[in-house]
Amino acid sequence: MLEKLAEVRRVLKRPLTLAEKILYSHIIDPKASLSGGGKIRGETYLQLRPERVAMQDASAQYVVATRLRF
């Protein structure tokens, strides 16, 4: 994870916020996803590989899926 964040810092050439560290630690290929200089909102799709996903169904029960394979 630390190596991936170091690569993201090299691509973006700036310090990262806590939210960016959390998000970018799950990115698949930082160079391909962030090659536009970090312009993400409304312009870029990030390819992420999360370890866990929490979802809520209609009965308000939470389900946590772990080790997702895409």
Describe the structure.
The model has no long low-confidence stretch (mean pLDDT 77). The chain has one domain. It is elongated, with a radius of gyration of 14 Å. The longest helix has 11 residues, at 2-12. The protein is built from 3 helices and 2 strands, in the order H-H-H-E-E. With 70 residues, it is an alpha+beta fold. The chain has helices at 2-12, 18-24, 30-33; strands at 52-56, 62-66. It has a two-stranded antiparallel ribbon.
Brief rundown of the structure:
The chain is α+β, with helices and mostly antiparallel strands and 70 residues long. It contains three helices and two strands, in the order αααββ. The model has no long low-confidence stretch (mean pLDDT 77).
Please write out the topology.
Elements lengths: L1 H11 L5 H7 L5 H4 L18 E5 L5 E5 L4
Antiparallel strand pairs: 1-2
Instruction: Name the strands of the widest sheet in spatial order.
Output: 1-2
Our count of domains comes out at 1
The count of helical stretches stands at 3
* Class from helix and strand fractions: alpha+beta
Strand coverage percent: 5-15%
Structural descriptors:
2 strands; elongated; alpha+beta
